[in-house]
Amino acid sequence: IAGAISYSDTYGPVGIYTRIDTIVGGDSANNVIDGAGSEIRLKNPTSVVRVGNYLYVAGYYAIKRIDLSVSPIVSTNFVGNSFLSGTTDGVGSAARFNLIYNMIYDGSAYLYVADYNNSCVRRIEIATQVVSTYAGVCGTSGYNTGVNRLSALYKNIGNIKIYAGNLYILDVVGNAIRKVDMTSGMDSILAGSTTA
To answer: Are 73 and 36 in contact (CB under 8 A)?
Structure first.
């Protein structure tokens, strides 16, 4: 269903019984409406993360927060603007993104976002809704490595993962997997070559 978030669960042995419930959206017109229950509409959802009683749902230019602890569930704008792209860091709706490709939770306090067309990684402090650039130069595509994360250049960022103190970045057009040491802040190439 276009613009929908579905929840799936399997009971018993795999393949015996599976239930899939659509809990948000389902409007093929790709409208964006915050509200409660069946009123909620999403536009081009790309990634979803659960943190406690909240779902964080990323679209191209914004992230919605859905409160699962109430009935009916309630959606509000968390960061960004569903209709405006850009590179601006800021708080809540003042921040701008340009095609959120992937979003992950660090298990502590932050969401990390692969900002595909901006060729950078953004970090969102959940408690304050502060959006900052974590790696790359937002809006600038290119190649360099062996530099601090805020000076590193990427060519469109796809999936990102955190493991053992490192942030792994899929540099899509750069044809490489990049690694940022989250302690030192240094960027390096793990695999591939960005010179091709």
So the answer is: yes
